[in-house]
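Supplementary Methods, section 5.1.

A reviewer requested that the exact input to the structure prediction be made available. We therefore reproduce it here, unchanged from the version used in the analyses.
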Amino acid sequence: MWDKTKPVLLNAKDYSLAFLKWLLLGITMGAICGPVGFVFSKTLSFVTDTRTNNPWLVLLLPLGGMLSVAIYKLCRVSDIGTNRVLESVRCEKKVPALLFPAIFIGSALTHLFGGSAGREGAALQLGGSVSSMLCSLLRLNEKSRHILTMCGMGAVFSALFGTPLGACIFALEVVSVGHVCSAAFFPCIISSIVAFWISTTLGVVPESFPLQSVPEISLETMWKVPVIAIVCALVSILFCLALHTSEKLFRKFFKNEFLRIAVGGTVIILLTMAVGSMDYNGGGVNIIHHIFTDGEVRFEAFALKILFTAITVGAGYKGGEIVPTMFIGGTLGGSMAILLGLNPGFGAAVGIAALFCGVTNCPLGTMVICIELFGSDGMIFFALSAIISFLLSGKASLYSKQKFIYSKLSEDVIDTDED
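The structure derived from this sequence is encoded token-by-token as follows.
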């Protein structure tokens, strides 16, 4: 804060030193996270292609899951995930350095053998691990560590998904709903841009879903978009409930982690055989692209993806829930668009915006990510659907440690920003 009791030159000195400090730290974090995102992206692409070319690998999912559990135990990071990263931004809890190899290998195993999980959740954990190691090396204080953790989260997300502005804002918003650390804006945007530039230079292609048709703003469109958003808000609550309930049930009935994940993997194998398709294994980005390019979508796809993902994550497989969230939102929005007489690709974009915001509670980050993914032509519709879903999804969240500082219904403070 500008200190009115200080001479102007002394205030200028403080801000100049802060600028230089966070410029260097932001560049450093981006320079580290860019290659990390590149290697992680290429690894997941390789194992996904390997599974696609060898469908029988899904039969080894229980074995891959048990290997993942063994790696987590070896690294002593069992039960540590994205929630720990969020907590580390608010309190003194640190992200263990060994979470880095554990989540990297665990996510690769999940994708190789066909678990239904994404990659961006893993990106947040990788970024948190990198920032923790850098903070220890530089002996930074607690408040600086909090900011640098957000920088790491945004940087790996940006490098992996190719949405630098959205990744930056998402990392700032996701920790505490209703509260954004303004001091973290500058270093976060620097680290996200640097990581994005490095990863794309090395060969990562930014994710994008080009819209073929965006309707004009009209009374008809302005009631149809909210209908999609309202349904997606309800499904976002259902998705979060399914994830958390599945985890509780697996833990209740299968105390042993190895048995728990083996049973979950077996259920996924049986479901894959019953469905007769591998569309619901892995993240499912190819299915999302199919909606935008061909305009085809299965009406039951969103429900099946919820089931596959809830079992995968609940049983303990590693990865993330963001890409499955986009799959669910895209297929649900695309299906509703067909029923409402809208373009399926446009409906998929609206659905992704609504469901993503409903489960992450990050309206600003959602809007920017959607513009980076779909272009700016439909930004009014993306913003409208995101805000509607944000309000109606209540306190539903992918992350149990996400803290709600302010009520969505009023200016009331419902929780403090201290654990």
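The first strand starts at residue 176 and ends at 177. These observations are discussed further in the main text.
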